[in-house]
Amino acid sequence: MKSVVITGSTRGIGYGLADSFLALGCVVTVSGRSSTSVKKAVTQLSSGHQADSVLGHPCDVTRFEQVQGLWDEAQSHFGTVDIWVNNAGIGHPQLQFWTQSSEEIRAVVETNIVGTMYGARVALRGMLQHGGPGQ
Known about the structure:
- The protein is of the alpha/beta class.
- It has 4 helices and 4 strands; from the N terminus they run βαβαβαβα.
- The longest helix has 28 residues.
- The radius of gyration is 15 Å and the shape is globular.
């Protein structure tokens, strides 16, 4: 049984991935920025799958320590992390670029680029410590 962590998995594509991995017999850690959305996703996923196969952990991917905490919680709970999916991302309103605020631009870059880099760093370091993915 594979252990999967999916960032940004409380709705949309990430939620669909979590549901699909669970249907394949994997254990899954779902995450999102708010504990409310994480609890809701865990409740919904647990209703259609074995409840002990789903773990929820809030995580803001723009905060490295929270991404590391997501890895640590999943590994502690399931014993390993075999698959890490960097799915968290945000968009911005479909406006002309020069009209977007600096805060909107920063949020997109920090979540979509920095968050993905943090996730890759945490996952690679963790997997390499255990001999590589799936070891």
